[in-house]
Inverse folding.
């Protein structure tokens, strides 16, 4: 079997993560779920892996009558996010690899635990030679008390593995987290299928929804996209969308309304208070906490 130096792999990965943070700062990867903003990082400041992405995007940018060519700053922003996605997958993959190694050790421990019964029983029998206690009671005490105590070391090993697996699972799970688009402190988990219709380009946490003035938060908005006879888009804000599948709105009478969406496909229909047109969205996942 090929020997894997997990310590070296972990150290190298940490170095790449530190370098990424120093170069690019507070960056999120949310795929096609949010609008790409132009990057202020110059092309020459990119690391080799990210530069390859930027070169690829620029080379494959083929404008036509409908789409104009993207500015290089957009390609750089996309490249940085793609590189962050690579690192996210690397962290998650490393966590799963260590988990598999731990799981491979479980059969060995269980086999040693099972094979230890004979030796422990022999030790118990010698200890109770000449005892006047009923044999049935001695047998019961062996299986109920003596054996579990003698096998505690095996169970401790198994418990350690389960604890480490749980910690590694949490690490892998956290790689799917993004920070709230407003406060940049609270975590929000992205859990929206790439083909789902999206309510908003950003995720905002419940704290910002409940404690901030909603009008000041430009993220997480669903706006009316109906176009009038003058070819003008209504652009009226219909709802604020937060994680936990909660839609929050400020009604005309200043009352707050919340609609909690259950899992499964649901159609939301809203009559715009400005143009009176109806907007519809199909929601399947949304943002989860």
């Amino acid at each position: 079997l090929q020997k894997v130096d997990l310590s070296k792999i972990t150290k190298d990965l940490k170095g790449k993560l530190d370098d990424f943070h120093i170069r690019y700062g507070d960056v999120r990867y949310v795929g096609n779920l949010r609008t790409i903003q132009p990057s202020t990082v110059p092309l020459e400041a990119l690391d080799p892996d990210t530069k390859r992405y930027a070169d690829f995007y620029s080379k494959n940018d083929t404008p036509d009558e409908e789409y104009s060519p993207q500015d290089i700053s957009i390609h750089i922003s996309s490249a940085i996010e793609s590189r962050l996605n690579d690192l996210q997958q690397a962290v998650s993959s490393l966590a799963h690899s260590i988990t598999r190694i731990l799981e491979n050790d479980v059969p060995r421990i269980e086999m040693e635990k099972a094979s230890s019964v004979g030796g422990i029983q022999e030790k118990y029998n010698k200890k109770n030679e000449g005892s006047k206690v009923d044999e049935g009671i001695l047998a019961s005490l062996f299986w109920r008390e003596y054996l579990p105590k003698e096998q505690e070391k095996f169970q401790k090993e198994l418990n350690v593995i389960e604890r480490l697996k749980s910690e590694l699972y949490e690490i892998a799970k956290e790689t799917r987290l993004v920070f709230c688009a407003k406060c940049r402190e609270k975590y929000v988990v992205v859990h929206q299928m790439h083909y789902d219709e999206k309510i908003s380009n950003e995720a905002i946490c419940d704290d910002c929804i409940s404690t901030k003035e909603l009008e000041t938060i430009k993220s997480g908005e669903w706006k009316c996209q109906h176009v009038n006879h003058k070819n003008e888009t209504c652009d009226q804000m219909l709802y604020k969308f937060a994680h936990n599948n909660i839609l929050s709105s400020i009604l005309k009478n200043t009352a707050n309304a919340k609609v909690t969406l259950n899992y499964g496909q649901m159609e939301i229909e809203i009559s715009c208070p400005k143009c009176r047109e109806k907007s519809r969205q199909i929601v399947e996942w949304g943002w989860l906490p």
About this structure: The CA atoms of residues 52 and 79 lie 8 Å apart. The chain is about 45% helix and 15% strand.
